[in-house]
Amino acid sequence: MNLDRPEFKWQALKKMVERAVRQSPILDIHTHLYDPAMGELLLWGIDEMLVYHYLLAEGFRHIQMPYENFWRLRKEEQAELIWKELFIEHSPVSEACRGVLTILHSLGLDPKEKDLPALRNWFQQWDPQAHITRCMELAGVHRIYMTNSPFDAAELAYWAKGWARDERFAAALRLDPLLLDWHNTAPQLAEQGYDVGEGLVEKTLQEIRRFLNEWTDIMEAHYVMVSLPPNFTYPSASDAAAILEGAVLPHCRERNLPLALMMGVERAVNPALRLAGDGVGRADLSALKNLCADFPGNRFLATALSRENQHELCVLARKFRNLHIFGCWWFTNTPSLIDEITRMRLELLGWSFTAQHSDARVLEHIIYKWQHTRETIAAALVDKYVDMAAAGWEPTFKEVQRDVWQLFGGAFEEFLGVRTVPEAAPDPIDWPE
Ligand code: FIX
Ligand code: ZN
């Protein structure tokens, strides 16, 4: 391909694509952030950023103290240790460390001052509402999907009270304990007033459905979700399979909700690291294939944690239109893997996938996760449009905007059968003729 020929305006094309990616609104379809009315559950500020479990795992590459001693420290002391190891004694090169730099820089702070107390003071001046607006604007995020667990005591207290919902935060009903640990979860359902025994007989399955219905209503959940270990199989004689068939899938069909499967997480590989101690394994995607094939009336969202699963996942999505793949999850949320995975998805699926979710646990994360993702995805898209242009296809700006929006929320909304953006975008979107 000769990109130097005069009629080939590839520089203009590059600028146009980069602009569309920079300006596109985003639906962040999976995070661990909360509606501000849920108080202390919404984490923000420099200390929370520094004790993020991504950074803890990296900090412990250097910290020599026994794990138990570290966990006994106050949060501020833990943050100081991480700061010292990852930002003072070493250059912050990892993706999660660079993320902190991007956040500080975007907020107008100077990371090279290396002044943790000054950073703390700066964050303390914010009230959560104003800070949320600022972070969402900087990230270009239109809507944040939470992860909401009816098994989490801290959350339950808020749901019991109820509040006027912040429209920017949408709920997703998280079901890991129900599907993966029925033995210990049955008593919790019983405590909430559901007539369940441990045996998964018809009556119990009906009560689980009642539980799902009621929590879907309370939370106003937009989808149902679960993370699955690498050894999850379907069909099988497991409790998980029985609850899926007898309760979760019928519930999703009845309420027209997709079920999101996050596949390939091996929990507590090193329990001493707590939240930072989870690992990855190659998932058996034939389980997903069987679910998509056996339940054409259900819709599945899916992401895989292992790099080795990515190609097979794309091919599955080509086969099943009730499957929508999303995100570069956790250990794949690094520029080199986002680049590889996004290019593969574009080449195999066109625009019918959701390129990324942030998985933010701390509010400010949305700034770096989306800024970094936009950079990587823009570079991949420039190459793709240049390839199309070299074959004589030159898109308009509107077409590029339309395409980019597909990757950042449009395809997801199409899959859900709803539409909130761009019509409902908070600020008018610059759609030049
Ligand atoms: O299961 C999940 O939703 C994971 O994303 C989390 O458990 C994980 O700790 C995380 O924060 C990954 O980014
Ligand atoms: Zn998550």
Mean pLDDT: 95
User: In which order are the strands of the major sheet placed?
Assistant: 1-2-3-4-5-8-9
The overall number of domains is 1
- Structural class by sheet pairing and helices: alpha/beta
C-alpha termini separation: 29 Å
Outline the low-pLDDT stretches. Answer: 423-433
Number of strands: 9
Could you tell me which ligands this complex binds, including any ions or cofactors? D-fructuronic acid, zinc ion
Largest beta-sheet characterization: 7 strands, parallel
Calculate Rg over CA atoms: 22 Å
CATH topology: TIM Barrel
CATH architecture: Alpha-Beta Barrel
Instruction: Please give the count of helices.
Output: 18
Strand proportion, as a percent range, falls in 5-15%
CATH homology group: Metal-dependent hydrolases
Bin the helical content: 40-55%
Note the overall shape. Answer: globular
Order of helices and strands: HEHHHHHHHEHEHHHEHEEEHEHEHHH
Q: According to CATH, what is the class?
A: Alpha Beta
Tags for this model:
two-stranded antiparallel ribbon; 50% helix; 9 strands; globular; disordered C terminus; binds zinc ion; binds D-fructuronic acid; 7-stranded parallel beta sheet; alpha/beta; TIM Barrel; 433 residues
Describe the structure.
This protein has about 425 residues and is α/β, with parallel strands linked by helices. About 50% of the residues lie in helices and about 10% in strands. It has helices at about 10-25, 45-50, 55-60, 65-70, 75-90, 95-105, 115-125, 130-140, 155-160, 175-180, 180-190, 200-220, 240-255, 285-295, 310-320, 335-350, 365-390, 395-415, and strands at about 25-30, 140-145, 170-175, 220-230, 260-265, 265, 280, 300-305, 325. It has a seven-stranded parallel β-sheet with strand order 1-2-3-4-5-8-9, sandwiched between helices. Strands 6-7 form a two-stranded antiparallel ribbon. Helix 3 (about 55-60) packs across helix 5, helix 12 (about 200-220) crosses helix 13 (about 240-255) and helix 16 crosses helix 17. It is globular, with a radius of gyration of 22 Å. Residues about 425-433 have low confidence and may be disordered. Bound molecules: D-fructuronic acid and zinc ion. The site of zinc ion (ZN) has 4 residues, from loops. The site of D-fructuronic acid (FIX) has 9 residues, from loops.
